[in-house]
Amino acid sequence: MPGILQKTGNRLVLALGEEAKQVCEGLDPGDVSTFTIEHGNDVDDIILVGERMEGISGNNIHHADSLGSAIEMAESLTKENDIIISCIKCFR
Question: Is residue 83 part of a domain?
Answer without folding.
Answer: no
